[in-house]
């Protein structure tokens, strides 16, 4: 049994066990290249870890909750988050640990190392996994190294890796992972070299940065670049970089620091050194008998090969393209900070300004022709912001993900979504709105005659104070019964709002978010204290970014709702004019423009209705237990209320279970009445899950057939721990 | 006849080698069978499984604690007819709580480590079946009864 093998002892028969990277290193050592000391934890060790801990089946259970192709990317991310947390919390069994520690301790004696993935899949000629699996630079001590081995193993199951494997048709069940542990050579300058340029067969390329080459590989530090002639090893051209930053080892890990001025003036390599690096790449090409992509580092005058792999040919560059898309799913901290700036200072104020400008147009004074033009304009404005919502706001949700991953890595909580508790209770606009609703409900609770009039539908002679409150509410938050994206139907009467208020008034107020107030502060303190010195600042910044991202998840739609409300107001005005003419209230004929614009509006593309039932085939199929994703812990029982169109919301009764396509932030006002939430759309961080967690409600997401299979009034049990919805009583 | 220890040892081997069992409950005279992941106690006097509280089997065994459990070594081959062993356990079921639950879960999860999330979920119950009798079937129709005193 080979748990771990030193590079010099790796043979051809070990190739599968040590993965592509590990095997190439072993060959380099055998070929006499100067390579930092390395050992390889075999894929056999990974498989044994999975078997002995029961993780293999646990991962499969997690991934097979539903068909992979039916999972939204958010759900895959959730799966990956849960799987990663399982790895973080499950130690390596003692006997394996002992074996690994023995060799690691004798080989590295407390020196810093790099812990790199070396998946056997990476060997497959058509697939490049570079960058998809994780590597960790500057890890010290046997315990820390073992810990990072588990992180590398877990990266086999990241969302990006899962999706990429799915796309290129690799079976996840067969995936495996070896890990290379290599002594760090802290180079003064490092880089990559291509023995043959993919663009010109007569040329090669050398790229170099100061410090560790982690910066170059990640794209954080721009390299100097030399084009070389393969024939006589001469420099054809040199493109200098701006040279502002370099990657250097931190206490643990690495940091991207400002490059000292005296270094910034000069290229990292002199003429001789460039040639020396290029010759090394050519030597590697000769040795491996194929053009090589080499990573190297200079320490004083010693030139080391860090790794070498065949250059991916032109035919496989297509794969590289899609891989970069998967990689782009993970936005870096810096990118997110820039995006936040743009959203907070530019986009949201812009959206509010647009809504206000539209609100200032006196619709009744417009001619029919002007009104028609105004409807068209408002449609465009609404469309513009809907597009921005998808392109800019949705990606900003990565801020939550980034925070979540760092939180889980550091804290290893039992509940992989504990981090959400640190993000809640920020002043989300929908919570503010629900509080305003609660204030109106309180007025009804305290005033019997008001309640009586509302129940009887006598809306004339309602208390002015109440009416004023309602008017302010509608002005601030818009009409509750309007859908957000492109819907053109809207209730005109205040009945819906009154119905909800009456239902709220009939029950004691719900304690919003009080649940976790104290806990949040404790969690925050623990999180920040888990970092030291300079890192504390980074941790606080990250938390701040996570909170902003989390808050925007909810608020963006509310602001978008305001823009849409203006489109709807103009449509309502047009409909009123047409109705008035038909009812004989006015003699003025409505112009063709207005009729046409309304017709066009009805024919504009709308989202497909998901509510379709399969025809029976002599059997009556009745669902009993539906499995989705656990999204809010707890167990709740109650009758179902299926929301198929926005108007259904006004029928919502206290204690019902909300079943919907997706909880739109504009419909969260019924949440205080609900006992539980079930959504067709999947994910832990979708609005419904977030708001359910805020109110402490059991929530299950990602049941695609929920709104088709569940009927109003069905007796439901929502198991938010396991992600299961049970329909009906236990009678056979 | 085979000595009691040998029969017990066969029972133990079967219980240790099999991961799944069929549990039968009833409601209003209608039998109801379900598949569960189980573990048996070392002395074979008890069988444990975990179920979600929202299931029919949980509702039924709460109303009527009499249950039957089938454990079997079939592999869906012809040879099963002469080769496979089945035991049917008759007994009473009840939900157990801490500290007993905690101890049993350790045993349960060492056999079914992949069910960690499921077994620890507050929406699940750990059920103990106290065996009254074992009925062991071998060689197609050879039946032996074992009664727990």
Helix content of chain B: 25-40%
Query: What is the CATH architecture term of the largest domain in chain A?
Result: 2-Layer Sandwich
The profile of the biggest β sheet of chain B is: 6 strands, antiparallel, barrel
The gross shape of chain A turns out to be elongated
Tally of helical runs of chain B = 5
Count the domains of chain A: 4
Into which percentage range does the β-strand content of chain B fall? 35-45%
| Estimated share of beta-strand residues of chain A | 15-25%
CATH superfamily label of the largest domain in chain A = ATP-grasp fold, A domain
Average pLDDT, all residues of chain A: 82
Catalogue the unreliable spans of chain B. none
- Tally of DSSP β-strands of chain A: 21
Fold and architecture overview:
- The complex is a heterodimer of chains A (732) and B (149).
- With 732 residues, chain A is α+β, with helices and mostly antiparallel strands.
- Chain A folds into 4 domains: 4-183, 2-Layer Sandwich (Dna Ligase, domain 1), CATH 3.30.1490; 189-323, D-amino Acid Aminotransferase, Chain A, domain 1, CATH 3.30.470.20; 330-425 and 528-571, no CATH class; 625-727, Glucose Oxidase, domain 1 (3-Layer(bba) Sandwich).
- Chain A is built from 24 helices and 21 strands.
- In chain A, the strands form 4 sheets. Chain A has an 8-stranded mixed beta sheet with strand order 14-21-20-16-17-18-19-15, covered by helices on one side. In chain A, strands 9-8-7-6-12-13 form a 6-stranded antiparallel beta sheet. Chain A has a 5-stranded antiparallel beta sheet with strand order 1-2-5-3-4.
- The longest helix of chain A has 49 residues, at 534-582.
- Chain A is elongated.
- Chain B has 149 residues and is an alpha+beta fold.
- Chain B has one domain: Pnp Oxidase, Chain A (Roll), CATH 2.30.110.
- Chain B has helices at residues 4-17, 56-63, 80-83, 100-111, 116-120; strands at residues 20-27, 30-40, 46-52, 66-72, 86-96, 124-138, 142-147.
- A 6-stranded antiparallel β-barrel of chain B has the order 1-2-3-6-5-4.
- Chain B is globular.
- The interface between A and B is medium-sized, with 20 and 23 residues.
